[in-house]
Model the fold of this input.
Amino acid sequence: MTSSSDRSAQMPSADLIARFAAIVGAKHAIRDPSEQVPYLREWRDLYVGRTPLVLKPANTEEVSKILALANTEGIGVVAQGGNTGLVGGQIPHESGGEIVLSLTRMKRIRTLDPAGNSMTVEAGATLAEVQQAAREAGRLFPLSLASEGSATIGGNLATNAGGVAVLSYGTARSLVSGLEVVLADGSVWDGLRALKKDNTGYDLRDLFVGSEGTLGVITAATLKLFPEPRELATAFCAVPSLEALLPLFQLAEREAGHALTAFEFMSGELLGFVTRHIPGTRAPFASPSPWYVLMEISGSAEGRASSLLERILSDAAAAGLASDAVLAASLQQGQELWRLREAASEAQKGEGGSIKHDVSVPVSRVVAFIKQAAPVVERICPGARPVPFGHFGDGNVHYNISQPPGMAKADFLALWETMARAVHEVVLSLGGSISAEHGIGRLKADELRRVKSPVEIELMRRIKAALDPKGILNPGKLLD
Done:
């Protein structure tokens, strides 16, 4: 297989660029470097790529023609959705030889079947647009992310996105029943099925979900829908200690069962970042707390979710697991409480450099991980400020570390690889994973080879070689 460095260095000729552009039309083939900028910069500016051409196809047929030509000519192609990824998987290499394939024009809702609890959408539809279409049909599509206004379904599936509702509904993989995928040679696999059971050989769907555009380009998906809850009850709790998080979660899970749709946690220092740097936010309590939890319960009957959440909060207070709590009295207040949690990543920019880790450990070991990681961080960078947050109920911790006050941002970020290696060692010692929901991309490609067994790596390489023998799909990402 041609290496990614060779693939990235192979620049398309002017004639070949014109042939690519003709597939989508001049209006949708972006050559001007100034117009290409939004497609070339990762949100945190960790990766800034170059490309001779950004192509914006209108349909699956155009995607097929683009990949067939790229495969014939040996040109790397980087598929991109809303460009919200955090590991560099959607950014072309800085050598400038890869074409960016933006799917944002492909956003049709092809079918919507409320009775069958399914809808088929194109890959460029944003998560928010899909949620709204489901809502208008009286149904729920539960995948929910802070970036849902710009993140696309294709990207969500390519990275197997998680979000805040995994506790009840699972990751993106659990929410799709069928896919349409264009393969490296331009052939199209139509696997758009809404079946609950289909036991006919290998599950090709799961092969492409989470493959980060390295095995094929997802162009459409059949998604699973659910009945809309009649009520959502939201509360924000002050938690007196790190050790109280697990018993508080166990109490909420025991009382609410599957009605517990979110159990998010964040450090007190991080909430301070949010209220300091995000306009329109304020602390919900007069006195600060070392930890906070946002809980959400859904109900099928009016008043049931609220009364259940009130009982959980009362029991938590009696057991010393919550020192204070506010139960949202309106939809707007609930959104304000969610804003405190969803702005966590954005708020860290105001504190300078941030080294970020998207990891998971067994739920019973989340507290142990946070306690064991803190001295590791201090040893590598004295004064660095860990501000953990994430989805406690599924063990996903966004273990982010802000620079010490007064330290140069560049000096702090230069410690990224050393810090990540050390934090990941703690994660692995507890039976965890170095990537929970953001994927591998370019950021963690070296780490993947370190933490996966040789057998796993070889199996993945064989699959890549079988589906993309010329190595044109997202070169250098996930597997080099």
The radius of gyration is 23 Å. The chain is about 35% helix and 20% strand. The chain has a mean pLDDT of 94. The CA atoms of residues 373 and 423 lie 6 Å apart.
